[in-house]
Amino acid sequence: MSTRTIASLGGATTVDKGSAVTRHPARGGSPAPKRLLRHPPSEGSRAAPRSAYRRLNGWGGAMGIEEERLAEYFDAYAAALREFDADATAELWGLPGMIVTDDFAGALESRADLSAAFEASYPLYRRLGLESAVPEIRSMTALTDLIAMVRVRWSHLDGDDDVIVTIDFEYLVRDDADGLHVYVAVGIDEADALQRAARARGVDLDLFG
Fold it and tell me: Which helix (H) or strand (E) element contains residue 201?
């Protein structure tokens, strides 16, 4: 069965090419956005505290999702990643869930599809020794009272809580009646980050689709 690895919230997912997914290939790459001038843990260093909470300059005003709720949401997502719980991870997404990178765009229409995609990514993450991930909220832009664009940097850790690699994502988050959900995840530098981790660990990424 052929698969393709694509970006998702906090890591790679692998989508079966035969599954029901809408794809929109890009016409060409574009440069990644400039990173904000903050100081996350560097690769190979000890991890930051296991919480997404970090007060952001300029965050405020009446409109938008509260910072604490976003931090709680991404902490819950990190906990699901730590347990390799695909079903719990899928429950944190809205439907359809869309994933976009420089060379791929696809939409998953059900939580069963999302769960299967996350489950398929776990062998690669285990082979790379990525046992957990710490989210750091880098910026938030309130688009409406209920919708926000959120930039998050994930520090992926090994079993000793050392940072192996960091990956940036941009997410469209909506405050639904049953809680926060991500509807769009844009992978900023995932492909390069996974290649760095693979080289460091002597892993052949071609074996994982």
Answer: helix 190-201
pLDDT tens digits, residue range 98-151?
Answer: 999 887 899 999 999 999 999 998 998 889 898 889 999 999 999 999 999 999
Read out DSSP for 162-200?
Answer: BEEEEEEEEEEEEEETTEEEEEEEEESSHHHHHHHHHHH
Q: Which domains does the chain have, with CATH numbers?
A: 3-25+45-208 (3.10.450.50)
Residue with tokens 């890009």: 26
Tokens of 63: 């409109």
Provide the Cα torsion 117, 127, 151, 153; round to 10°: 160
Q: What is the pTM of this model?
A: 0.74
Paired tokens of 95: 């439907």
Q: CA distances (Å), 112 to each of 5, 13, 17, 20, 108, in order?
A: 17, 13, 15, 11, 9
